[in-house]
Write a structure and sequence with these properties.
With about 170 residues, the protein is mainly alpha-helical. Helix content is about 75%, strand content about 0%.
Length: about 170
């Protein structure tokens, strides 16, 4: 029969074992791509010591198995075509996942270089076209306010919204 002392001792040994931590990290990365922050949080939840987790994350990043810029670039590529959202919304989603501002900027630049262009106003016009029928019966001023609010919720900045409303045939007074 085990006593609590023996189990606690074994847990402490495991928390300081870099090989076990590395194996746990590789198992997590095998399932899906992760950010440094997410992987670190999950390993700490499994009971690994902070210093061991930090060392394992640095090693995995050093060999290219953990790359926040690549994670962010892939996230942007997946979101850009699937659900129309502005850069602000996409960047906020990445920040919530633990990606730093510098990594987001590098990923955005890489995405734009790869795609050739990332026209945010075209995305906003796409949202406007999708919502056109829903707001068609409203008075012009009310329709414009609701469309503007919709685009703000989707993460578009005011300049992009104004341009999309103008190009989409909506007036931009107010």
């Amino acid at each position: 029969m085990r006593t609590r002392g023996t189990f606690a001792g074994r847990s402490t040994e495991r928390a300081a074992d870099p090989d076990a931590c590395r194996e746990a990290a590789l198992a997590l990365l095998e399932r899906t791509r992760r950010t440094r922050a997410d992987l670190g949080r999950r390993l700490r939840e499994k009971g690994y010591a902070e210093a061991v987790v930090a060392a394992v994350i640095e090693r995995l990043a050093g060999v290219g198995l953990l790359d926040d810029v690549e994670y962010a670039r892939a996230f942007i590529a997946g979101r850009w075509g699937r659900r129309a959202a502005g850069w602000r919304q996409i960047e906020n989603d990445l920040r919530r996942r633990g990606v730093g501002a510098a990594d987001i900027a590098a990923a955005r630049a890489g995405f734009i270089a790869q795609e050739g262009s990332a026209d945010e106003a075209a995305m906003a016009r796409r949202v406007l076209a999708q919502a056109a029928r829903r707001y068609a019966g409203l008075e012009s001023r009310v329709r414009q306010q609701r469309l503007y609010a919709l685009l703000v919720r989707r993460g578009f900045d005011s300049d992009t919204i104004q341009r999309a409303l103008r190009e989409g045939g909506e007036s931009t007074e107010s």
